[in-house]
Design goal:
The structure holds two protein chains of two kinds. Chain A is of the alpha/beta class. Chain A is built from nine helices and 15 strands. In chain A, 29% of the residues lie in helices and 25% in strands. The radius of gyration of chain A is 19 Å and the shape is globular. In chain A, the strands form three sheets. In chain A, strands 5, 6, 7, 8, 9, 10, 11, 14 and 15 form a nine-stranded mixed beta sheet that branches. Chain A has a four-stranded antiparallel beta sheet with strand order 2-3-1-4, covered by helices on one side. A two-stranded antiparallel sheet of chain A has the order 12-13. By secondary structure, chain B is of the alpha+beta class. Helix content of chain B is 52%, strand content 16%. Chain B has a five-stranded mixed beta sheet with strand order 6-8-9-10-7. In chain B, strands 1-2-4-5 form a four-stranded antiparallel beta sheet. In chain B, strand 1 and strand 2 form a beta hairpin. In chain B, helix 5 runs antiparallel to helix 6, helix 5 packs antiparallel against helix 8 and helix 8 packs antiparallel against helix 9. The two termini of chain B are 45 Å apart. Classes of the chains: A alpha/beta, B alpha+beta. At the A-B interface, helix 3, strand 6, helix 6 and strand 7 of A face strand 3, helix 2, helix 4 and helix 8 of B. Strand 7 of chain A pairs antiparallel with strand 3 of chain B, so a sheet runs across the interface.
Chain lengths: 296, 321
């Protein structure tokens, strides 16, 4: 991670946050229960819940037993979802009745969040290329009781069709440096060869997503890594080819803007429309979000 | 295709449960009826699911799925069997319950007003039809919740409000009781003999902690002091053999129970360590020794959990490299 010293503001605070335990955040499954009812039920079981200031359906939760071991969780009344992971779907902004594709969907946190935005109507395709991970996706879709979803298995870069969707989420497989708070072995950063290989795949995924969305439709590209090659570098590749335009997005949480340059790579001022989240910004994991529009 | 693979038959089946209106479209595929609101299907791609699998088409007829019944829960007015936590636990462990007077065939199992899945009545016996993995998860939930709801069924006392040494001791005894209740449930539910033994040992350990604390509490009430003499000896360090590690099924009940046990132990270590910070010297030493004691349990469970975590990470392909 040392190579990020120059680009991450407040480097010491960043590392201090990486070494702190991560707060547990839950998202109410509003398709099944009202947030205030959920809060009341969990408080009766001794949990302390504090609503997130920027999303009243989500709570930071503390209790004597893990949040995943309650009847309410088992019944699908909430999903444990890290705070930064809530943001890509906010950026995507799906609406009821739309056709939406979640291209790399497992294990299903963002899929089920999208379904809530869509009020369980329209068409939500949740795709993944791994049969094993699809089992986790199915378990969550069934548990949360989502009816508008179709779960598919296909390498994302080969997903068939043309201009089929109003919105596409590419929450891409990545080197996952942003989740180093949970997984200490990621704290040393990913090897350059791995980053390079992932960036190649990510570019293919994003290109395919831009072909699958209708002209004027929205594609959100997100990762949970800090590596510019997997973030700004990927977005730059589609901008250069004229496949998309970047839209500015203002998240409801403290954040940094995308990088204009990194090392010898020049991404340009346009990249400041993208968003970087660092763990010390609001006691979360790290991530990257870009909102793109397919030209008309 | 059998005659009952017909949406009208599904509607008829659900009417027996009191569901008059199906909330969505019924779609037949993969030997099942799916409940969906999806507008169209993608073409040229392998489809695993379309909404919620509601009813399976089997050789002997239609069978409602547990997820389907759970989704329909509030609409289910008939063929609904309300269970106590103890009854549900027995069913989840695979033990049939004798329940005379129930309608024959499939029923919705309900706990505290929530439909939790499918059961089947034959004669006077009620059996659980919830899938195995979900049953294991629910067993963990019942064991964990029993540790916080034990006794009064009210909200657990919050240790943060505990101030006096007497209250700290009371809080500590309560913690040990919860730990014991949890490990006893876990030992009963674990299938693997090695793991069952670990949980039994931990339950006995918590009981010994409780007895030790009760003695300390009595002494404190009598003399106003807490003695460090007669502290129990930790016996858990030698129980994890390589064979036990190998036998634990990563996706099973045991794995989840280990994780849940860690949370309990972490809470106990934090509780004693926190109290040691502000207590008088003699009492602080007492709390520190209790924290070390619980830490040894935590270390034991953490080493098992780490083993499993590495296995899951690699086996399920979550590692992106």
């Amino acid at each position: 991670m040392e190579r990020y010293r120059e680009i991450i503001p407040e480097w010491e605070a960043f590392w201090e946050a990486i070494l702190r335990p991560l707060p547990t955040v839950i998202r109410t499954n509003t398709l099944r229960i009202d947030p205030s009812d959920l809060r009341r039920r969990l408080e009766r079981k001794g949990f302390d819940l504090r609503p997130l200031s920027w999303d009243e359906t989500c709570f930071e939760i503390r209790g004597e037993i893990p949040a995943g071991n309650t009847l309410e969780h088992w019944l699908g009344y909430y999903y444990i979802q890290e705070a930064t992971q809530l943001l890509p779907v906010k950026a995507l902004g799906p609406k009821p009745g739309e056709r939406v594709l979640d291209l790399c969907a497992a294990p299903g946190g963002k899929t089920t969040q999208i379904a809530q935005y869509m009020e369980d109507s329209g068409l939500l395709v949740a795709n993944d290329d791994s049969a094993k991970r699809i089992q986790a996706l199915l378990a969550n879709v069934y548990r949360l009781g989502v009816r508008c979803v179709v779960v598919t298995e296909c390498p994302g870069q080969e997903f068939p069709g043309e201009a089929e969707f109003d919105r596409v989420l590419v929450d891409a497989p990545c080197s996952a440096e942003g989740v180093a708070r949970r997984f200490p072995h990621l704290r040393k950063g990913a090897p350059p060869g791995v980053i390079q290989r992932l960036a190649t795949l990510q570019k293919k995924l994003l290109v395919r997503a831009l072909e699958l969305v209708r002209p004027g439709g929205i594609v959100v590209y997100s990762t949970c890594t800090l590596a510019p090659e997997e973030n700004e570098g990927v977005v730059q590749s589609v901008l250069e080819r004229g496949l998309a335009e970047l839209l500015p997005w203002e998240p409801p949480v403290p954040h940094a803007r995308g990088l204009v340059r990194f090392g010898e790579a020049e991404y340009g001022p346009e990249m400041q429309k993208t968003v970087r989240i660092y763990p010390h910004h609001f006691d979360s994991e790290g991530g990257f979000i870009a909102v793109l529009r397919r030209p008309q | 295709m059998p005659f009952y693979a017909d949406p009208n038959e599904v509607e008829k089946l659900l009417r027996e449960f009191g569901v008059e209106e199906i909330p969505g479209e019924l779609l037949f595929r993969h030997d099942a009826f799916w409940l969906t609101t999806a507008q169209g299907l993608p073409k040229g791609v392998k489809i695993h699911a379309v909404g919620i699998r509601l009813v399976r088409v089997q050789k002997l007829g239609l069978k409602p799925t547990s997820f389907g019944l759970m989704f329909l829960g509030p609409r289910i007015q008939r063929r609904r069997v309300e269970l106590t936590r103890e009854e549900l636990r027995e069913l989840l462990l695979g033990h049939p319950l004798r329940k005379p007077g129930l309608p024959q065939g499939f029923v919705a199992l309900s706990l505290e007003g929530e439909v939790v899945g499918c059961g089947e009545v034959r004669g006077e016996l009620l059996r659980c039809q919830i899938p195995r993995a979900r049953r294991q998860e629910l067993l963990i939930v019942l064991a964990q919740e029993s540790s916080v709801l034990q006794g009064s069924g009210k909200m657990p006392k919050k240790e943060e409000n505990v101030e006096t040494p007497e209250d700290v001791l009371k809080g500590a005894i309560l913690l040990e009781e919860r730990g014991k209740a949890f490990y006893e449930h876990a030992a009963l539910s674990a299938q693997n003999p090695g793991v069952k033994e670990i949980f039994s040992i931990l339950a006995r350990e918590e009981e010994r902690h409780k007895e030790y604390l009760a003695k300390a509490f009595a002494e404190f009430v009598r003399t106003g002091k807490v003695s460090l003499s007669g502290q129990p000896v930790d016996v858990t360090s030698a129980v994890i053999t390589p064979e036990v590690k190998k036998e634990i099924e990563a996706a099973g009940f045991e794995a989840a129970a280990i994780y849940a046990g860690m949370a309990l132990e972490e809470k106990a270590v934090a509780f004693y360590a926190e109290k040691a910070k502000t207590a008088p010297r003699e009492l602080a030493q007492f709390y520190q020794s209790l924290a070390r004691w619980e830490q040894s349990h935590l270390d034991l469970l953490a080493s098992l959990n780490e083993e499993l975590r590495q296995r899951i990470w690699h086996e399920r392909g979550f590692w992106p490299f």
